[in-house]
Amino acid sequence: MISVGVIGCGYWGPNLIRNFVENEAARLAWVCDTDERRLAEIGRRYPSARATPDYRQVLADPALDAVAIVTPVATHHQFARDALAANKHVLIEKPLTTKACEAQELISLAADRRLTLMVDHTFVYTGAVRKIKEIVESGEIGDLLYFDSVRVNLGLFQRDINVVWDLAPHDLSIMDYLIEREPVGVSAIGSCHVEPGIENIAYVMLHFADDFIAHFHFNWLSPVKIRRTLIAGTKKMIVYDDIEPTEKVRVYDKGVDTRGARDRGDREDDYRTLISYRTGDVWAPQIDPTEALHYVCQNFLAAIRGDARPVTDGAAGLRVVRLLEAAQESIKEGGRLIAL
Question: Which of 321, 289, 328 has the alpha carbon at shortest distance from 119?
């Protein structure tokens, strides 16, 4: 069994703790949090794990194989660097770091020590996103045209990061996993309506070398909660609605067909475009209902054993951080296109 310690027992940490405990390949050895009350609560729930408010005590255990870091993003780089230096495999909550150079340092350190570095891009492991991946890879929807995503709700407002750093890692990681192509530029705009200097609404656009385009809308100040993504292809289109309780993914046999026709009113070599609209069936594929974190922990443990590669490895985390950095720079510069 792989012994695991979890550093950070706040909002997300208990979910990871539970999934490691339920995995037969793992043994929860340590839990860590600076909040003594929260730590005591987790300790009562999992008495077999040792508890400490000092993460360095966790890393000093020579019998510990791996750690999951579920702390504020500003601490990720230091905690992960210390863990890798202590020869521990590392799983980090999104985003990987606050800077691309920090992410690159962690990737290099993990490679030098032959350790697993993985980022918890949870949505990549959901049944819905994995099913969309199957459909896209099969060629069923044709050549990809655009990726359009909306992730809005009322709150939760944060003081250390803006809405882009809070919400965008979800959709950027989904796009990165599904599309498998890197943008050449990023442009973004945002506004601060509540906390000065902390954008609570932002629009981010990714530019690619071809006609493919990706657009994202993030908002903490919305009267409704929306989690919807549109993916269009030349043959079919996909709607992914994470709020939908059952049919989260729907495939639409809809689109536009075009062909050139000679325009008799003009010169013989002139053509006009004829457009016809295609409307076919709509179907909802069966989705694996297993909790995404089950697969996150499973993939992490398998990567440590050498049985699999991390789906969301350090490189995937770095790509997302680069996009976040570029989006933030573009917002500060009034929407200027930032080349990648």
Answer: 321
Task: Tokens for 178, please give them.
Answer: 């599904």
Half-sphere exposure (Cβ direction) of 338: Cα atoms closer than 13 Å = 22
Closest CA to 119 of 324, 328, 332: 324
> How remote is the C-alpha of 208 from its chain's centroid?
19
Nearest to 146, CA basis, from 67, 93, 205, 224: 205
As a whole number of angstroms, the distance between CA 53 and CA 146 comes to 46
Q: Is the dihedral of CA 19, 20, 22, 23 positive or negative?
A: positive
3-state secondary structure of 170: helix
How far is 110 from 117, CA to CA, in rounded Å? 6
The answer to whether the beta carbons of residues 282 and 7 sit under 8 Å apart is: no
Average pLDDT over residues 18-23: 97
Domain shared by 233 and 275, yes or no:
yes
Confidence category of residue 227, pLDDT binned at 50, 70, 90: very high
**215 close to 202: Cβ distance less than 8 angstroms:** no
- List phi, psi (to 5°) of 73: -60, -30
Q: Of 184, 105, 178, which Cα lies nearest the Cα of 147?
A: 178
Same domain, 276 and 188: yes
End-to-end CA distance of the chain: 42
168 and 46 in a common domain? no
Phi, psi of 75 (to 5 degrees): -95, -10
pLDDT, position 155? 81
Angle in degrees, 0-180, between the axes of helices 36-45 and 13-22, rounded to the nearest 10:
20
| Residue 59 structural domain | 2-122+292-310
